[in-house]
């Protein structure tokens, strides 16, 4: 029988916990990619963190913190731009790494946006799933995922297959 302390050590996965640090070393499945075709921005909770998963108009995936630092608006209500997600309140845009790349109403070419960053993690589609890497620095395996053993079919076929799988599960 585990003590309460041992149980917490094994089951708590938030930032700064032993199991949380272990889990953050690996790519973790987030959602089926087909869901992002219908809903371009969605709130997700992974390893105790509230995040926003989005697909920018250029096709890049992003996984960022859910709160815009400007007025604490929730980015799950934001809308995808060409290179990132734009906050619904004042329009600040963040790329997939969490770096602010546009602040409307500021001086064009100004450096203000360069000082603004929110939590951001790498996200990648592989085999019809969106995977995220939540670690940082030496704790993370930052290698790009390669499709080892995954069907080498065109993306359109993978998306169709993922939609069929979702329809049969629902």
Q: Could you tell me the strand content as a percent range?
A: 25-35%
The helix fraction, in percent, is 10-25%
**Main sheet: strand order:** 2-3-4-9
Q: Number of DSSP strands?
A: 11
Based on CA atoms alone, the radius of gyration comes out at: 18 Å
Order of helices and strands: HHEHEEEEEEEEEEH
Straight-line N-to-C gap: 37 Å
- The average pLDDT score comes to 85
Largest sheet geometry: 4 strands, antiparallel
Structure class: alpha+beta
Coarse shape = globular
Give the number of helices: 4
Low-confidence sequence ranges: none
Provide a descriptive summary of the structure in words.
- This protein is an alpha+beta fold.
- A 4-stranded antiparallel sheet has the order 2-3-4-9, with no helix packed on it. The chain has a 4-stranded antiparallel sheet with strand order 5-6-7-8, with no helix packed on it.
- Strand 7 and strand 8 form a beta hairpin.
- The longest helix is centred in the last third of the chain and has 15 residues.
- The protein is globular.
- The protein starts with a helix and ends with a helix.
- The mean pLDDT is 85.
């Amino acid at each position: 029988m585990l003590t309460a302390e041992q149980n917490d050590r094994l089951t708590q996965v938030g930032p700064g916990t032993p199991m949380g640090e272990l889990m953050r070393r690996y790519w973790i499945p987030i959602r089926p990619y087909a869901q992002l075709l219908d809903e371009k921005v969605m709130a997700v909770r992974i390893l105790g963190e509230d995040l926003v998963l989005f697909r920018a108009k250029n096709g890049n995936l992003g996984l960022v913190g859910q709160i815009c630092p400007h007025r604490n608006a929730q980015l799950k209500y934001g809308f995808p731009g060409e290179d990132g997600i734009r906050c619904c309140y004042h329009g600040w845009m963040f790329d997939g790494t969490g770096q602010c790349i546009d602040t409307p109403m500021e001086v064009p070419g100004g450096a203000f946006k360069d000082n603004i960053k929110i939590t951001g993690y790498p996200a990648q589609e592989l085999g019809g799933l969106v995977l995220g890497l939540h670690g940082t620095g030496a704790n993370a395996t930052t290698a790009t995922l390669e499709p080892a053993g995954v069907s080498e079919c065109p993306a359109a076929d993978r998306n169709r297959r993922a939609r069929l799988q979702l329809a049969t599960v629902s």
